[in-house]
Amino acid sequence: MKNRDYAGKLAELENSFIEYADRFLTAQPLFNRNIILKREHSLRVRRECTEIAGSLDISDHDRFITEVAGLFHDVGRFEQYTKYRTFVDLKSEDHGQLGIAVLKELNFLDGFDATDAAQILTAIGCHNRRTIPEEEVSGRELLMSKVVRDADKLDIMNVVLDYYRHPETNDTVTLDLENSPAISGAIIRSVRRCESVAMRDLRTVTDFKIAQLGWVYDLNFPRSFQIYLKRGYHHELLKYLPENPEVSDIFGIIDRYIVEKAGVQ
Ligand SMILES: [Fe+2]
Asked: What is the pTM of this model?
């Protein structure tokens, strides 16, 4: 396929995706808000994938496959929300696996050869795991999975910050956690040790914000760090955290980490 054909195929898949997502719209605006949130997020993640994959030394074909995986990474969210009225996997089901089932059922990947389809499904299945199981996933699949995870995090940073900017709007974003300034010890320790935080350790919205600072430990590519830094996500997040020495200390660790990984002098 030529570049132009990849662009055409992507546009076609985007239309099918939008059509699929819109089937979940109802007469209830509050419900629809969450469907639209995930629909728009998916479209933006696809664009983030274009940007990150564009910085890597991979073929046009692999770049295209990565973008398709980005577009469909959250395709399970619509059924999940419709069925359970939550985006919390622990309270419903694994939305990565649900997405794989949806893609297979709807034949969205007809026309892809078996290897490409398998890579897309692997990237979707891995995108919401705490870490990628590197004993099972390697080579191109691993690279694509990493791009999708970075792209997802970069966009979710903005979705969540938008919620902090307008807290009255949508509490599904912070996973229904208790709205308290308290930070749990386990969360502080993980972030200090440069480890990402387990979802099940989160107790409060402030825990979630600290954990969110720690998402940078999961980013993989210099371009992802450069985008993060350019958007100044961590600086904005800091505005919504309590002012105390513990938070300043963690912020310093995170800031140094991002600057170093972005390769900025
Ligand atoms: Fe997701």
From this structure: 0.90
Q: Judging by beta carbons within 10 Å of its beta carbon (0-12, 13-18, 19+), is residue 73 exposed, middle or buried?
A: buried
Cα of 90 vs centre of ligand 1, distance in Å, is 13
Q: How many structural domains does the chain have?
A: 2
Domain stops at, among 133, 148, 163: 148
218 alpha carbon to ligand 1 midpoint, in Å?
15
159 CA from centroid of ligand 1 (Å): 13
Residue 143 has pLDDT above 70, yes or no: yes
The Cα 187–Cα 207 span in angstroms is 6
Range of the domain at 197: 177-262
The 10s digit of each residue's pLDDT in 168-186 is 655 555 666 788 888 888 8
Q: Ligand 1 mean position to 61 CA, how many Å?
A: 24
The C-alpha atoms of residue 41 and residue 73 are separated, in whole angstroms, by 10
CA of 92 relative to ligand 1 center, distance in Å: 13
Gap from CA of 94 to ligand 1 centroid (Å): 9
